[in-house]
Amino acid sequence: MRLWLVLLLAGLVACSSNETKEAEDLGPKSLSGIDEEISLDQEWRHQVGNGMGNAYARLMPSIVDGVIYAASANGVIEALTLEDGDLVWQQNINAEITAGVGASAGKGFVATANGEVIALSLKDGAELWRQNIKSEVLSVPVVEGDALAIQTVDGKLHILNAETGRPRWSYDSNLPNLSLRGTSQPVFHGGMVIAGFASGKVVGLNVKDGMVLWQERIGIPAGRSELERLVDVDGRLLIQGDSLFVAGYQGHVMAIDLRNGKTIWKLEASSYHGPLNGLGNIYLVSADDHVMAIDDQTTNEVWSQSELEGRQLSEAVMFANHIAVADFEGYIHLIKQLDGTIVGRDQLVRPPILWTRTGSYGMKHPSRQFDYDDGIRTRLLVADDYLVAVSNSGYLSVFQLDQ
After folding, report:
1. What's the pLDDT at 183?
2. Secondary structure letter of residue 350 according to DSSP
3. What distance, in Å, lies between the first and last C-alpha atoms of the chain?
4. Bridge partners of 276?
5. SS3 call for 14
6. How many domains are there within the chain?
């Protein structure tokens, strides 16, 4: 999908330019052998509904008190025990889910393609309330106390009452003419809700009334074409103490002081994802799928890993003191924090397809209940010593280290 978007936008640039240039597309790098130092054991696996659907959704499970809550695009939501995958409950909301599952204080939250936000009981999956905010949601709903933050694809941030679903206030970021498919996930901090937008801005707002407390630009639109002017902030907003670390497409990776919204440092960068931190470094997956480490004080590059170039990497997470990313073929890669060496790899592989007897003459056909895309675009999920991955086709697998 990302490649499709780049090709489409590249066509727009070509039409707007008087010069004709033929760009060389080398495609994703093939995987080379590694010296394995760490390996994963698949503890259990399970198919959740029909997967991510056709809307480029990145449905991400949540884990609360040893239970995984996962959703699929065709409306199926399931609760499974983290340890062994036993089904606790299953619910079907009969609508296309595009965002979720957010979970907090006994409630789970999902959003649908037609703009409905739905709250469910984590105990049994019973629906608690629905609220239509009239715009598609692609990022996971986030809860802090009784405030529920929802970011929509039309460039708005909505705060709802988490108990009742009633709207409190909304903020409009003024969406540009062209943006990447997706939005970042808002975060709460010290009475603020912070969100990144397709305009290239990160904004801190008062949770109570929506008043803008500060705003900072991660990228400034530049160039003649809409493609050149893309400065989307789509990835994780990372908070460490009183500092916010954020990255944008065709912009910068920046550290911002949350007390006043002032820039601590910035470095030119381009990424679809947000940063990760560890060992005094900021780790970033660049737009061309290089994984790099940047010293969080000096902004000097510590190392850069280019062996996964073009493999449409997911956002990085920290697992067992290693950086974990997934790619478009369903591979999970484990990278050393110290020097960027790839020291572990596994693949999320679907078991043999079940064949069902349907139609006339007793002919057999493979199940059509799910997509066949085994790539992973949703961020991996870490809980204690478990690593959870869910493929684009909804195939969920739980790993632990091979001891």
Report:
1. 74
2. P
3. 37
4. 283
5. helix
6. 1
CATH number of the structural domain spanning residue 144: 2.40.128.630
Q: Which long-range CB contacts under 8 A does 252-258 form with residues at least 24 apart?
A: 252/218, 252/219, 253/282, 253/284, 253/294, 254/216, 254/218, 255/282, 255/296, 256/202, 256/216, 258/189, 258/190, 258/192, 258/194, 258/204
Tens-digit pLDDT profile for residues 351-400: 665 544 445 444 444 445 556 778 999 999 999 999 999 999 999 999 99
User: Exposed, middle or buried, 23 (CB in 10 Å: 0-12/13-18/19+)?
Assistant: exposed
Taking CA atoms, 140 is separated from 25, 102, 204, 324, 326, in Å, by 33, 6, 18, 20, 19
Q: Tell me the C-alpha distance between 274 and 232, whole Å.
A: 11
Flag whether 157 is in a domain.
yes
CA–CA dist 58, 99 (Å, integer): 7
What residue spans of 130-190 are helical by DSSP H?
none
Q: Is 316 a domain residue? A: no
Q: Is the pTM of this model over 0.85?
A: yes
Give 3-state DSSP helix, strand, coil % of the chain, rounded to 5: 5, 45, 50
pLDDT tens digit sequence for 86-97: 999 999 999 999
**Could you list the residue range(s) of the whole structural domain that residue 65 is in?**
55-172
Q: Is residue 98 part of a domain?
A: yes
DSSP for 284-335?
A: EE-TT--EEEEETTT--EEEEE-TTTTS-PPPPEEETTEEEEE-TTSEEEEE
DSSP state of 16: H
Does the residue 141 lie in any domain?
A: yes
Alpha-carbon Rg for the chain in angstroms: 21
CA atoms of 259 and 214, how far apart (whole Å): 9
